[in-house]
Amino acid sequence: MTGRGEPPEGPPENPPGGEDEYRSLVFDESFVRAARLQEFSAQERMGEPARAVRSVGALTVRSTRRRSRAAVVLVVLITLAFATAVYIGFRNPYPKPVARHAEPLRTTVVPLAPTDEVPGGTPETLVSDGPAAEFRTGASGINLPPVRRTENFSNSQVTAALTTVKDYLVASSIDPDVITGRMVRPVGRLLDPDQTAQFDRSVSAPADDGRHSATGWLVRFDPADVELADSDVRVQGSLSYAETGSDTLEVVSDHTFTYTLRPAVSGPHRADDASLFTVRRELHFVVDREDLRLHRLEVRSSYVQAGPQSCSADATGALRPLLAGERADDGGPEGTDPYATGLPKAELCGTLSVSSPARTPPPGPDAATSPPGRP
After folding, report:
1. Which neighbouring-strand residues pair with 239?
2. CB neighbours (10 Å) of residue 3?
3. Over 338-350, what HEC string results?
């Protein structure tokens, strides 16, 4: 017995359940939208017992309207925020800080004239038996004081200011290339840009006007006259600092530098033709926050005493030392008569008086003393 097969006339053209069974029915869009129903929740049916279902189409329309209103509100809020930011940008209630400009350096250079002949000797003897016997050598003689924060500057910022000042003192008073007149760049690169033009003019065209003396910025000898008999410079002095404003620190340095010099002559030198030359420099520096960031400073004032020199020596461009066996050609500073008529004239010069060396230990790295007053 065979299974169920196809009728003898073949399979029916339109079998039940085929695609053409509902071809005569047309489902338009309104019919489909109206047929989308959703049953209310139990809570909703308790309030509206007559309605068991709701149209999904109506719910979708209400949801779309709510989203549209939320989008409009968001756009309005963004627009208001942007307008507020623009308004505050143009009407900033906080005043813009005024940029601070460095003041010109004020310089005073006082030659110290010897009363007798300048003593000579070997570099070793002059240092060991002279007033600089207990001085330290080079940068080790420039010690930082104990650092404590100020009201507006941290410990690290105070240390940075003192370190910049020390770098300036080393470059302008100890660097052999600077003190022998070969270069000035190590000093100029540490200055505030507002003082660069004044510094350049001072070293290229020095003048005795209290503003453009090269020896107010640095220690420099004329290589045609003298040379270093010993490259070691002996140093002793102190540093102090104070906050002078919410954005500025003032640092005061007071150091004595001792150089061993001899005449710049060709050929061999005598062993005892060296002599000592002493420079005392009291400098006032100002360092602001921008200077701290860029490792630079402003030199506000410079008071220099240097000798042995003649009172008549022009020390604006370079110091003019009297060497071993020489005397001051003008006999020391002249008197000033306040009763004389005519243009007042007073010579700015001092008498070099060297005391015996003090056999006391030099100040250590933690020594903190205020610079003594000008002698």
Report:
1. 253
2. 4
3. CCCCCCCCCCCCE
What is the C-alpha separation between 329 and 254, in angstroms, rounded? 29
Q: Which two tokens stand for residue 53?
A: 């279902």
Return the DSSP state at 28: -
DSSP tag of 155: H
Backbone angles phi, psi at 368, to 5 degrees: -135, 100
Residue pLDDT, tens place only, 23-69: 555 556 665 565 555 566 666 666 655 555 555 555 555 666 677 77
Alpha carbons 171 and 174: distance in angstroms, whole number: 6
Residue entry with tokens 């140093």: 235
The CB density around residue 368, as the number of other CB atoms within 10 Å, is: 15
DSSP 244: E
Predicted TM-score (pTM) of this structure: 0.69
Distance from C-alpha of 39 to C-alpha of 60, rounded to nearest angstrom: 14
23-40 burial string, b = 16+ CB within 10 Å, else e?
eeeeeeeeeeeeeeeeee
Tell me which residue of 318, 120, 320, 317 sits closest to 229, measured CA to CA: 120
Beta bridge partners of 351: 113
* Cα–Cα distances in angstroms (integers) from residue 5 to residues 10, 14, 257, in the given order: 10, 17, 126
Q: 337-351 as b/e, with b when 16 or more CB fall inside 10 Å?
A: eeeeeeeeeeeebbe
Q: pLDDT for 214-259, tens place per residue?
A: 999 999 999 999 999 999 999 999 999 999 999 999 999 999 999 9
